[in-house]
Amino acid sequence: xxxxxxxxxxxxxxxxxxxxxxxxxxxxxxxxxxxxxxxxxxxxxxxxxxxxxxxxxxxxxxxxxxxxxxxxxxxxxxxxxxxxxxxxxxxxxxxxxxxxxxxxxxxxxxxxxxxxxxxxxxxxxxxxxxxxxxxxxxxxxxxxxxxxxxxxxxxxxxxxxxxxxxxxxxxxxxxxxxxxxxxxxxxxxxxxxxxxxxxxxxxxxxxxxxxxxxxxxxxxxxxxxxxxxxxxxxxxxxxxxxxxxxxxxxxxxxxxxxxxxxxxxxxxxxxxxxxxxxxxxxxxxxxxxxxxxxxxxxxxxxxxxxxxxxxxxxxxxxxxxxxxxxxxxxxxxxxxxxxxxxxxxxxxxxxxxxxxxxxxxxxxxxxxxxxxxxxxxxxxxxxxxxxxxxxxxxxxxxxxxxxxxxxxxxxxxxxxxxxxxxxxxxxxxxxxxxxxxxxxxxxxxxxxxxxxxxxxxxxxxxxxxxxxxxxxxxxxxxxxxxxxxxxxxxxxxxxxxxxxxx
Amino acid sequence: xxxxxxxxxxxxxxxxxxxxxxxxxxxxxxxxxxxxxxxxxxxxxxxxxxxxxxxxxxxxxxxxxxxxxxxxxxxxxxxxxxxxxxxxxxxxxxxxxxxxxxxxxxxxxxxxxxxxxxxxxxxxxxxxxxxxxxxxxxxxxxxxxxxxxxxxxxxxxxxxxxxxxxxxxxxxxxxxxxxxxxxxxxxxxxxxxxxxxxxxxxxxxxxxxxxxxxxxxxxxxxxxxxxxxxxxxxxxxxxxxxxxxxxxxxxxxxxxxxxxxxxxxxxxxxxxxxxxxxxxxxxxxxxxxxxxxxxxxxxxxxxxxxxxxxxxxxxxxxxxxxxxxxxxxxxxxxxxxxxxxxxxxxxx
Lengths: 502, 348
What we know:
Helix content of chain A: 55-70%
Radius of gyration of chain A: 27 Å
Distance between the termini of chain A: 63 Å
Oligomer: heterodimer
Largest sheet of chain B: 5 strands, antiparallel
Mean pLDDT of chain B: 87
Mean pLDDT of chain A: 90
Strand content of chain B: 5-15%
Distance between the termini of chain B: 79 Å
Order of helices and strands of chain B: HEHHEHHEEEEEEEEEEE
Number of strands of chain A: 8
Number of strands of chain B: 13
Strand order of the largest sheet of chain A: 1-4
Strand content of chain A: 5-15%
Low-confidence stretches of chain B: 1-6, 32-49
Number of helices of chain A: 16
Shape of chain B: flat
Number of helices of chain B: 5
Structural class of chain B: alpha+beta
Helix content of chain B: 25-40%
């Protein structure tokens, strides 16, 4: 052993002893270093969301040092020639100055904006993985609810963030948000005047409120929920897909130290690196082009950030129904698309674990994940529901499709008003039959064919001619069992050479 | 090593490429190897759970270590370049993004290569504990309940505590009401009889300024243009397009009509106007909101013909004064802006 290594080792031992004498964490550290992470790419989606959140906090702190939450009207005399002499709010001017005059200001603002889009996208993909593999079942149902809550908060947080800028686009978004708030039956009017400090566009106290919601209240809530989310995962350990040696009661994978820690830090750095490349090279929300917001101005063909698209789509798709009883507008139109629709979608997702439990009667703890095909009914319902929401999301782009492709806007709306009820049904049957066919064939949709070629001899004996080497062998001792008709767990033929099962 | 030092970069790049290619090839080969029937280590169905997947390999790969060192130094070069760009080029966004993004991506590559090829590779099995331990749970319940030993009027105390808690929470929440004014008339507009229509530079509109085939944005003279109900849409239509309800017959002097610019659906400013260019095939003049595409007919009192708005577009009566300026001939007779519980709707 060379002397440098020996010296480093001695110092390290001494430092560890010193720390141990004061806090005594050796047992906990040992446990942490040996914590096992299952190896599957889909487990990284949640990590990407976490790392995007870290980038958001870092870049966000930089931005708060420049932002002024004020609607005081000023005349612009800054460095951007096309807005010279324009009347605008101090808030908008502060973001213009941050973007155009502060070195690296635009970089940080664009990274922040990209990170928000990636943050919510990775949460949604993570949620899809959780749903289609049945990871929300006991004991992870509580954590699933925390995740859904975080998704709602993240959407609100993103909306508050781009509203703060007070450019023309965000002002229009706030006008719509106000209309949605005011549309809540009975209480909407008072609620909206409480939030905005008066009728739209609100009093000057609205801007500091919006800022504190965006930079403190929601981020703090997210930080607390993230901590709970991770603590709960650590307590229960990660779920895992079935495989050789994997049982309900164990986890097979890479221990935290050293390989997984290095890879995960690598993922953090990769997420941050890609976000900085995006923020530096691909323009996002060029606010100087939109101009300042005034209630009497608007922009044509405007699109919100992607995660608001489903709400815009719902507002557009809804027929012009308003429920008026005795001169009182009980349900104004924006309520349907702006409140009822998203609440329904989240209510279904919150209720799903108990709905499924009711039908399967399965109250047991599950630590092995389902492959989507193994639960054709769940996968089909999930795919149909997803397609229902995705259609509404796509309707949010109907005007862009009209501008780009010339397809009549009114025609598109009429077609989607029917399509939204037909397509999910079609998707349901396609997904269910795809699951069943995958179960039968044993093929993996993304990988080469896997299975076995067999021959049945004249004596009825079955001979295996060829078999793929890495077929998943299920744990025979603890087969998951369901009890719903059409949903029974059948041991998949993939797990046996074809032809042997009968 | 600096980022513009070409040769080592290329060399390291090649090594990385070779490494990745070799690994891919090895994996592909492993997957294609046919397993002879009846032979090989594949576990039978029954024995699947007895497999021990634990493995540990110590790679000891000096080449991978050199690659990691190279990536780290290259990352340092990019990060240093960020500082240089910040100072020398006073922050070119693209270059800053490439420098910092590049540094982070190179660090990521270093960590991942180290995690996969430098440190020991281990697949371990960890047992999950039981979450529900019946005995422990019972003990916890018992310990908590023992704290209430000897209390005779349990229900009374719990009830009183509940009432106190609810009252305190209510008291704490009450000040939320001071966030906003008490709801009264929500959407008062600055418009009243006699107020002149001005453009966004405060010069008043003459009736003669209003041409057929386009729309004008008007604001109230000497009044806050940022008020929600301030903006108006003003158009002039030929007589054949004007079919106002009887009560509004004199609201459109010389064929000039004014409507609230705020869409009664979700509060956006309406900014699309279609006017027929060739009468036999075109449709009648219409306003469209760019947010959710509610479409209203200015010739028919703002009637909705398409889209989600639940009410017609509110119309403002106009008059032309003796000097030829456009003035409001009255207030709005219905609420402008989005609908709500107490919205005042038009009779028509």
